[in-house]
Amino acid sequence: MTIDRHLEPLRTAIQHNCEISDASGSGIFSICGMALRLRDLNKWEQGFSPWEENEPAALVNWIDQKEQLWENLEGQPFGSLPLNGGMYDPFDTQGINTALVPHKLFYGAGYAHALKPTFFLARVAKTLRLEGLEIIILDQELIRDLLTLPAMGQDGAIIIRRDAGRLFLWDQMAYLKNSGKRFLSFALKQSGLPDAGIENRKAHFDTLQAVQEQTYIYHEVGEIKDTVFDREVFRQMIAAFPRTSSELLIRTVKDLLADTGPVGTLSHLIATQQAAGLGFYAAFQDGLFLPLFPELRQAFERFASDRDWDGIENARNTGYERAGHYARTLMDIFSDARYSRDTQGAADRIHTLLIEPLIEGHAVG
To answer: What is the CA 306 to chain-centroid distance, rounded?
Structure first.
């Protein structure tokens, strides 16, 4: 992972901020979730393929070293980034990326799940425009933190992280629940794999990633183009309910709006009749997505035999209407809470009115 010598101070500073973020943010994950993220980070550091595993003893030793480092860094402030003789705030992504253009590098920074800060530095593979938006495709990542995010929006552009996306997709397939496996088998067959075995997945992995890359792109397009869930209100809600079931529902609703919207994931899959992508989409639905949008898998079951895209379109419309209903309800509850200054009361209402029915297996509206 070489880099121009005069950029080494920048690289070191970004890496230091990654370690600080991981030190303070590691507690947001479950034990299993943390283990998976540590394995992915170790694979990236070692230059392994997604399906390669480090020796257990070496991995344990590496984790011990990480934990010792994080103990010393927890609570420290993020440092400024040195570049071209100046110092940049670590969240000044526009300024930093303007300076990095000649080096064909891209710097990412923002807040992810539970408002964990995230940072990375990667090489730019190519840029393109789609739906009036700039798409920046990144390949080799030079620096990253615990989070394996395949795509994100930043400064009005869509960022595709191929390095992270490879790990993300492999993990999705490797740890898929039984309920999603028949959809995955369909997707693999539609992608040209002779069977769903591990060796075939390895051999055809670039093809599988290319299919999923379109899903990542159009999900981000759908998010940026969405006009239902007010973006500023969404940010305020995430800040008000960090690390709660309310945050999880809010993010799920926003994702569903992006996927079912007029220019989002499903609209693209339907317009291009991308059966493999549809199979992956159905396979990887999880958590609150399943009770919030049960029509997708139901429609897919019929689609697998009759290839009727109209049924998928009907399901998309239903999902979009329901996501809109949930978004408006969430915004109304939050508006009342801001007026009454009762955030906990709002969280209780969200749980009672919206989350409990989903846990019981049925959506509202």
So the answer is: 32
Residues 77, 100: Cα–Cα separation, whole Å: 24
CB-CB contact of 328 with 250 (8 Å): no
Which residues, other chains included, contact 182 with Cβ-Cβ below 8 Å and sequence gap of 6+?
none
The answer to whether 93 and 180 are in contact (CB under 8 A) is no
* Contacts by residues 265-270 (CB-CB < 8 Å, ≥ 24 positions apart): 265/215, 265/218, 265/219, 265/222, 266/296, 266/312, 266/316, 266/319, 267/218, 267/222, 267/316, 268/214, 268/218, 268/221, 269/215, 269/218, 269/312, 270/309, 270/312, 270/313, 270/316
CA gap 24, 19 in Å, rounded: 9
The residues, ordered by sequence, that sit 6+ positions from 161 with a Cβ below 8 Å of its Cβ are: 108, 120, 122, 138, 141, 149, 150, 151, 152
Predicted model pTM: 0.95
| AA identity, residue 2 | T
Cα–Cα distance for residue pair 235/114, rounded to 1 Å: 12
Closest to 256 (Cα-Cα) out of 185, 194, 182, 318: 318
Kindly report the backbone phi and psi dihedral angles of residue 67, in degrees, each rounded to the nearest multiple of 5, phi listed first.
-65, -40
Domain positions in the chain are: 5-166, 178-359
3-state DSSP assignment of residue 129:
strand
Are 229 and 327 within 8 A, CB to CB? yes
**Sites in the chain below the pLDDT cut of 70:** 1-2
Phi and psi at residue 345, in whole multiples of 5°?
Answer: -65, -35
> What sign results for the dihedral spanned by CA atoms 162, 166, 168, 172?
positive
- Helix 205-225 vs helix 265-272: crossing angle, to nearest 10: 120
d(CA 102, CA 96): 12
The answer to whether 133 and 114 are in contact (CB under 8 A) is no
* CA atoms of 7 and 90, how far apart (whole Å): 15
With CA atoms as reference, report the closest residue to 151 among 210, 209, 213: 213
Kindly state the DSSP code that residue 157 receives in the 8-state scheme.
E
Q: DSSP string spanning 24-71?
A: HHGGGS-HHHHHHHHHHHHHHHHT--TT----HHHHHHHHHHHHHHHH
pLDDT single digits (tens) 45-99: 999 999 999 999 999 999 999 999 999 999 999 999 999 999 999 999 999 999 9
